[in-house]
Amino acid sequence: MSLFGGSKKQSMLGVDIGIGGIKLVELTKEKGHLRLLTYGYSQGFNQTSFSPFDEPKQTAELLQTVVKKAQVSSRTAIAALPLSSIFSTIVSVPYQKNQAAIKESVQSQVRKLTPLPLEEMITYSTFIDPIEKKDQKTLIKQTDEIEKKNIRVLVTGSAKTLVQKYIDIFKQAKLQLKALDTESFALIRSLIGKDKSSMMLVDMGSSRSNMTVVEKGIPFYTRSVDMGGKKITEKFMTQMGLSEIEAEQMKRDLVQTNHEIESGKTPLPKLFEEFLEPLLNEMRYSLKQYESMEVRENHGVEKIILTGGSAHLPGIRHYFANALNMNVYVGDPWARILYPEDLRPVLEEIGPSLSVAIGLAMRESDL
């Protein structure tokens, strides 16, 4: 099993495990394109405070159920570690001809920043700046230029104990865990592709919202906050005396019918604004933090892409676009995937919720 990186091998099953439930997508490669084989998801875990990683057996049983109902054929899978449990930083170190010396310099800096001792973590390094080019005609010139500057390295890591919990879950679910990725890289694959411009991805999940500022396909800045779609559900339940099922259904009905709010012709419901304003403030903070980073190259974020289960809330795109004076879009993770046309309505509705799972399934495709 490779962690965070390693050699790419054929694997098309992506599994996204979170407090909001389990989502999975299986893809196949067909004549240079990716085609959807199947997908599945659970409705979440019963306990409000339940963490799927604290009860591996229960989570494995739910995963087995989703795999069976979706009629998944693959026995190997790629999963994503939650952004809230990931350590991520970009360090800048002097260029040295000896790559081992560069890695030693990186480790020395990272050791001062990690929340746990390095011996208790699994880390993976991604070189942002190329060390050399394959073109021999430019190799000497490239090396001369590199020697004059520092090398930027993205270091991602997680606690070994959390990694072991993933291994236990998949083993009990009778699946081979081929690799562990990050949610950020999964979303970059499914929503951005080869676009090298700077943008912010905002993944609004059930319990948490994650913000990732991406530059040239690299997650330069990440932030996870305790704000999710369940807060709207809870407000519906409290203010209208609804059950959780009724409140969730009301949210879905609003998404499907309230086109005037989305176009900006009707003001955003007060209930939604109460949820979105704190998130808007977190987005502003994240943008300022990125702009203050010395290691970045681009001038600033050019656009924002929304995803996650709350991305289709009526008026949300228009609200953020006006408040931030920036282009805001709802991401389409199916844009580069073939699927039956009659599935389009349901796939467009659930697409934002499956963005991470889709990106995981795309990881080994080289497309």
From TrEMBL:
Gene3D superfamilies: 3.30.1490.300, 3.30.420.40. It comes from the Bacteria. Pfam families: PilM_2 (PF11104). SUPFAM superfamilies: Actin-like ATPase domain. This is SHS2 domain-containing protein. The lineage of its organism: Bacteria, Candidatus Uhriibacteriota.
